[in-house]
């Protein structure tokens, strides 16, 4: 037990309590001062039988958007008798490869990988190590460079372009002109929303009333957020916009409050749809939101990877690129048609 506590870098009392809890669930054998795997089982651990697959998951964060992705993957792995181990890279792209190596060293036989890309050039700069992984790999909520080596991997992602189309179409059907886009540029989702906005306008034969308003967190980059708020308020007052789509939820809740201070009310003066649907329903004015199928992405990705690990190679299906469609959840921030 003392060796275990030292190796894990925890207090002996913490190790003892955890061992007691695991032993009570039949996952460890505990004797006086020592601990061992149950007879016939190895580090595959939580699933019945020593041959249970171990899958690793690399995520850029364990909160906000990716909390649901992780939850879906964990639930699917448990249902299929696999063990999921997780590493979080905290959006440091340069550390992704070492985290993946750590998962492999911990026994992962396959990987679910969501790299910490935060800029348009990151897939090209930090994508080679993903394609070179020596185990079955599923790319999660990410796209590589078109035509690049990552195209040969399995992947599961939300179709953010479709989500943007849902939002734009809803606002147009309410009688609004082309909505403005207010968006970040610091994540793959943000970049996909921006690209999806251009595609949606093109598909519907619309023209943006103004260029995309760059935004950010009101806490991290307050000057940029304030510039976006004032730009949006000015567009409303000038009659150039009665509706907007904003990425993401946290920024949108701040934006509604700031717009009110600037004399623009949601939804009376501006109909607003946000993207992500993490906290949109909890805003003072509940926000209509595009909801990517985050939990389903994690579930399908884990199911795909476990299938790769358990089906003989000569019976394996072709590689899969699976795009799941977001949904639109209508709330109070999109009232009725715009005021005339």
TrEMBL record:
Q: Where is the HTH deoR-type domain?
A: 1-37
Q: Does the keyword Metal-binding apply?
A: no
TM region(s), chain numbering: none
Q: Which Pfam families match?
A: HTH_DeoR, Peripla_BP_3
InterPro entries tied to this protein = DeoR_HTH, LacI/GalR-like_sensor, Peripla_BP_I, WH_DNA-bd_sf
> Which keywords does this chain's UniProt record carry?
DNA-binding, Transcription, Transcription regulation
Record-linked Gene3D superfamilies: 3.40.50.2300
Note the PANTHER family from the entry: ALANINE RACEMASE, LACI-RELATED TRANSCRIPTIONAL REPRESSOR
This chain's protein is named LacI family transcriptional regulator
Q: Which organism is it from?
A: Streptomyces camponoticapitis
């Amino acid at each position: 037990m003392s060796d275990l506590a030292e190796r894990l870098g925890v207090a002996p009392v913490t190790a003892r309590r955890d061992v007691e809890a695991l032993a009570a669930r039949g996952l460890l054998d505990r004797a006086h001062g020592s601990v061992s795997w149950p007879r016939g089982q190895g580090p595959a651990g939580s699933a019945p039988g020593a041959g249970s697959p171990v899958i690793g998951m690399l995520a850029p964060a364990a909160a906000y958007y990716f909390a649901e992705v992780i939850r879906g993957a964990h639930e699917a792995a448990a249902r299929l008798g696999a063990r999921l181990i997780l590493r979080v890279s905290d959006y440091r792209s340069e550390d992704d490869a070492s985290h993946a190596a750590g998962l492999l060293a911990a026994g992962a036989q396959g990987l679910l990988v969501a790299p910490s890309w935060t800029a348009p050039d990151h897939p090209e700069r930090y994508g080679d190590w993903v394609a070179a992984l020596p185990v079955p790999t599923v790319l999660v909520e990410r796209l590589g460079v078109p035509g690049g080596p990552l195209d040969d991997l399995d992947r599961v992602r939300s179709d953010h372009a479709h989500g943007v189309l849902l939002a734009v179409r809803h606002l147009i059907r309410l009688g609004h002109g082309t909505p403005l886009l207010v968006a970040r540029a610091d994540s793959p989702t943000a970049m996909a929303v921006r690209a999806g906005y251009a595609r949606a306008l093109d598909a519907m034969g619309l023209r943006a009333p103004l260029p995309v308003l760059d935004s950010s967190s009101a806490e991290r980059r307050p000057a940029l957020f304030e510039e976006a708020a004032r730009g949006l308020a000015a567009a409303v007052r000038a009659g150039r916009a009665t509706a907007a789509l904003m990425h993401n939820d946290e920024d949108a809740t701040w934006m509604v409050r700031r717009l009110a201070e600037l004399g623009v009310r949601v939804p009376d003066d501006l109909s607003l749809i946000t993207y992500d649907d993490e906290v949109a329903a909890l805003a003072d004015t509940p926000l209509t939101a595009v909801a990517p199928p985050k939990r389903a992405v994690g579930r399908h990705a884990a199911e795909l990877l476990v299938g790769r690990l358990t089906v003989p190679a000569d019976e394996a299906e072709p590689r899969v690129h699976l795009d799941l469609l977001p949904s639109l959840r209508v709330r109070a921030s999109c009232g009725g048609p715009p005021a005339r």
